[in-house]
Design a protein that fits this description.
Radius of gyration of chain B: 24 Å
Mean pLDDT of chain B: 88
Shape of chain A: globular
Oligomer: heterodimer
Structural class of chain A: mainly alpha
Order of helices and strands of chain B: HHHEEHHHHHHHHHHH
Strand content of chain B: under 5%
Helix content of chain B: over 70%
Helix content of chain A: over 70%
Number of helices of chain A: 14
Low-confidence stretches of chain B: none
Number of helices of chain B: 14
Number of strands of chain B: 2
CATH superfamily of chain A: MetI-like
Largest sheet of chain B: 2 strands, antiparallel
Largest interface: A-B, 98 and 106 residues
Largest sheet of chain A: 2 strands, antiparallel
Strand order of the largest sheet of chain B: 1-2
Strand order of the largest sheet of chain A: 1-2
CATH architecture of the largest domain in chain B: Orthogonal Bundle
Number of domains of chain A: 1
Number of domains of chain B: 2
Distance between the termini of chain B: 22 Å
CATH topology of the largest domain in chain B: MetI-like fold
Distance between the termini of chain A: 26 Å
Order of helices and strands of chain A: HHHEEHHHHHHHHHHH
Chain lengths: ~300, ~280
């Protein structure tokens, strides 16, 4: 209430102090209630992860503390899942960051052409990842896919895209890049255009070479945007499901068994509820840590943007 | 501004052309495919020139595909309808729940407030399957499985945080003095909220609405787990086409075009809001 006393408009608040106190809770309660309904299954998942619980063997169900986790950590196939997820995250975020930054630099100047281009380049981001995968499946079909035909012209006559173990990761990373690079681009472009002009003008006057300007002025000032965008994409990439499920369901073989796809198959193919929950809890710990770092970074950027505005 | 050499200009145009090709060609190509017959699609080499046909769309709209072995039922229109119902209702519910909450978080500094706001935000980043798999069991028991109600509730995970955080930023930007001035005239908080705060936050509400609609429309995994064919949106429905027997490639392409048209149209219409929405209000567009 201190702010109110300061602005000298406490009349209404003082008249009904109780109302004033309860009101914020009343306003946010419905939103909170809706979310509590979602918190309960979260607790259930943690509970399942500590049970021997396979729908195919209901009689064996029982509480086993951390045995699911211990079994996971001793299982090479789990470490395969960890490795594939990390590789997927590393390649998608890395490629998208470089590509997004490159495009943002190309479109930095506010010309009509650049503005139209930056709007058009947003379109893939507006397409559902599952649908985008379907588009790429049509284009990489071995019988009629236009991309299969094009790489065939360059001598790769038997390029199998997502259906060959050697190129499957490349293919899904490319689709992810197609969908999400626009996100990097749009954030970095907004960042570039929000940078203060004076350092650049000073550098121009002093005749500083462009590479120096880029590495010593542009890049450091852009870093908060780069970190925010990269963290956000990391959070999404490590739990990618739609693209991989729609392309290969984790295959061929176990090539693309990332966290959520593994957990999905564990649950619906092998009916192993306990193990599936344990895999997802491990993923949750990773995303929880990442999201805390991200939110801090994002809040800082938000403060800054609001300070400027 | 930096001077540009003619070589730099050529390199720049070349690079942008490649970028444009990579990101826009797939949309263009699938769009063309949707107007081709199966024979034309299977033709090698692929060609830009063909006799466009509306047959693929006719099949999807009528829901009946004549094949040599008989008539096949195609339920794609139902999927499209489901997408409209799910996305629209989820966003509407989130607006009703989220705008008052956003106002509370922006105007009143109260305990729990920040906690709730952050809990909501962290939902946005938790692995969806973690919640969905147990939820499927509860929904079975509650009779919510394969219902619009159940799905719309779960869709709040996507739409609510987005609306809450974007609109909150706009409420915070409104000077408190304006609201106080209005209240000194004897108006209650609700009238102030309704007549002053909401109209001033309108651009933020518009941005949040459009963006959360797009994200709800594009969601795949919720309905995959919690619904069967008759309640599934286009994202799941179109994918089912791939394994369905008798469906032709042109019809898959046409279903893709119909699935993405609403979000692409909205994005183009509302592009000035997108940057701010995509960064959850951290970057001003």
């Amino acid at each position: 209430m201190a702010t109110e006393a300061m602005t000298g408009a406490a009349t209404n608040g003082a008249k009904r102090p109780l109302m004033r106190k309860v009101l914020p809770y009343l306003l946010s309660l419905p939103a909170l209630l809706v979310c509590i309904g979602i918190l309960i299954p979260f607790g259930t998942a943690a509970w399942y992860s500590m049970q021997r619980y396979n729908l195919a063997f209901p009689m064996t169900r029982g509480f086993i503390w951390f045995d699911n986790y211990i079994m996971l950590f001793q299982d090479p196939s789990f470490w395969h899942t960890v490795r594939v997820s990390l590789l997927y995250t590393f390649f998608t975020v890395g490629v998208q960051l470089l590509l997004g930054l490159g495009i943002a630099l190309l479109l930095q100047r506010r010309t009509l052409f650049n503005n139209i281009m930056s709007i058009l380049l947003l379109l893939p981001l507006m397409i559902a990842p599952a649908i985008a995968s379907l588009m790429w499946r049509l284009m990489t079909n071995p019988n009629f896919g236009v991309l299969s035909y094009i790489v065939g012209l360059f001598g790769f006559t038997d390029f199998r895209w997502a259906s060959a173990p050697s190129t499957a990761l490349f293919t899904v990373v490319m689709i992810d890049t197609w969908v999400y690079t626009p996100f990097m681009m749009v954030l970095l472009l907004a960042g570039l255009r929000a940078l203060p002009r004076q350092p650049f003008e000073a550098a121009e006057l002093d005749g500083v070479p462009q590479s120096f300007v880029f590495f010593r002025i542009t890049l450091p000032m852009l870093t908060p945007y780069i970190i925010t965008a990269a963290l956000f994409r990391m959070l999404e990439s490590i739990q990618q499901f739609d693209i991989i499920y729609a392309m290969t369901q984790g295959g061929p073989g176990n090539t693309l068994m990332v966290f959520q796809v593994t957990a999905y198959l564990e649950r619906y193919q092998y009916t192993n509820v306990g193990r599936s929950a344990a895999i997802l809890m491990v993923l949750w710990v990773i995303t929880f840590i990442l999201s805390n770092i991200f939110i801090k970074q994002w809040l800082r950027l938000r403060e800054k943007a609001r300070g400027v505005a | 501004m930096q001077r540009q050499t003619s070589l730099g200009r050529v390199v720049r145009v070349g690079l942008l052309t490649m970028v444009g090709l990579f990101f826009l060609f797939p949309i263009f190509w699938v769009f063309l495919m949707s107007f081709q017959t199966n024979q034309e699609i299977l033709r090698i080499p692929p060609s830009l020139f063909f006799e466009p046909t509306l047959h693929n769309y006719q099949v999807l709209f009528s829901g009946r595909l004549e094949t040599q072995t008989g008539t096949l039922e195609v339920r794609f229109m139902q999927n499209l309808m489901n997408s409209v119902i799910l996305a629209t209702s989820s966003v509407a519910l989130s607006l009703v729940l989220g705008i008052p909450a956003a106002y509370a978080f922006a105007r009143f500094k109260f305990r729990l407030g920040e906690d709730i706001a952050f809990t909501l935000l962290s939902f946005r980043f938790a692995p969806p399957l973690l919640v969905l798999l147990p939820l499927a069991i509860y929904f079975q028991q509650l009779g919510l499985i394969n219902t619009y109600t159940g799905l719309i509730w779960v869709y709040q995970l996507i739409t609510l945080p987005l609306i809450l955080w974007i609109v909150r930023g706009y409420f915070e930007d409104i000077s408190e003095d304006i609201e106080h001035a209005y209240r000194i005239d004897g108006n209650g908080w609700f009238k102030t909220f309704w007549k002053i705060a909401i109209p001033l936050a309108k651009p933020g509400i518009a941005a949040a609405t459009l963006l959360s609609f797009i994200f709800a429309w594009n969601n795949f995994v919720f309905a995959l787990i919690l619904a069967s064919a008759d309640k599934q949106p286009v994202t799941v429905g179109a994918l089912a086409f791939v394994t369905a027997s008798g469906i032709q490639y042109g019809q898959i392409a046409a279903s893709i075009v119909l699935s993405v048209t609403p979000t692409l149209a909205l994005a183009l219409y509302a592009q000035r809001y997108l940057v701010e929405g995509l960064s959850l209000g951290a970057v001003k567009g």
